[in-house]
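To illustrate the input format used throughout this study, we show a single complete record. The first block contains the structure-token representation of the backbone; no residue identities are included at this stage. The design step must infer an amino acid for every position from geometry alone.
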């Protein structure tokens, strides 16, 4: 007997990985995709294909949505709202925090238990120890869906605010994006003297591994809120970043990735905060609305 009846809407790379993992874990899976041909390998492997979203929704007690974007989620769920009433919807589509909150509000209006999810993994990692998925929203929906969700990877409920899982996802991805931009800056600088990107990557990895634990110290300064620990100051850091920019330009490498850092430091210095701890930059990142 199957463990339960699940529906997966969307069979791109991630949706296909999710459907396959659920099926392999003993769940009866119904799949739907805008391009019907993508359902064929899943049917061959034991899933049932639905011709329409309402048909797919009717077959599952828990409906996992893995579509392109927020607009496509609403486009396909809204016509199926009546059939979703009383069911659990787990949205694994990448959305912004406010988009997640908007869909959650819509779901509540229609009696749908809504859980927003963020996948901290690539498709090939689904179901492996390295896969991590974040969820927020209806806690009862999480409790119902949790056994199935835990087959996909480590499951973490981040709270009742449906936007928090997306927010954490976007925050972590922002850190990753800026880190890898740093890799490219280092590659560009070092290849001017013939060093391969592979060799520089090995050095960057070792350097960052040594530096990463210091992130907790930066967090302590930010949480303290005084920015007066006597550590590395805004003035010290702005001269340091100026040296990085000069070195890049001397090698014929653009400093466009480094300039925003200097701009924030210069703004703090101009406001009389040259002696403050440099993580005071965070105050310049807040958009006052």
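Output of the design step:
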């Amino acid at each position: 007997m199957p463990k339960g009846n699940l529906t997966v809407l969307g069979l791109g790379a991630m949706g296909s990985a999710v459907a396959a993992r659920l099926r392999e874990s003993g769940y009866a899976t119904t799949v739907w995709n805008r391009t019907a041909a993508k359902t064929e390998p899943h049917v061959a492997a034991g899933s049932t294909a639905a011709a329409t979203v309402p048909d797919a929704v009717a077959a599952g007690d828990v409906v996992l949505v893995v579509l392109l974007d927020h607009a496509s989620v609403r486009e396909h769920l809204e016509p199926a709202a009546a059939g979703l009433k009383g069911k659990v919807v787990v949205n694994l589509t990448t959305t912004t925090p406010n988009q997640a909150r908007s869909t959650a509000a819509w779901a509540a209006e229609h009696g749908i238990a809504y859980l927003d999810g963020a996948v901290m993994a690539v498709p090939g990692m689904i179901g492996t120890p390295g896969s991590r998925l974040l969820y927020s929203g209806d806690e009862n929906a999480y409790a119902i869906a949790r056994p199935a969700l835990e087959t996909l990877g480590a499951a973490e409920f981040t709270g009742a605010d449906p936007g928090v899982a997306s927010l954490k996802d976007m925050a972590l991805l922002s850190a990753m994006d800026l880190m890898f931009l740093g890799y490219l800056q280092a590659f560009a600088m070092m290849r001017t003297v013939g060093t391969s990107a592979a060799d520089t990557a090995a050095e960057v990895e070792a350097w960052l591994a040594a530096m990463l634990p210091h992130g907790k110290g930066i967090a302590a300064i930010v949480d303290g809120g005084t920015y007066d620990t006597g550590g590395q100051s805004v003035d010290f850091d702005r001269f340091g970043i100026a040296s990085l920019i000069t070195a890049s330009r001397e090698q014929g490498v653009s400093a466009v990735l480094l300039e925003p850092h200097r701009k924030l430091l210069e703004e703090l210095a101009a406001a009389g905060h040259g002696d403050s701890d440099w993580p005071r930059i965070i105050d310049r990142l807040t958009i006052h609305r």
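Structural context for interpreting the output: The chain has a mean pLDDT of 96. The radius of gyration is 24 Å.
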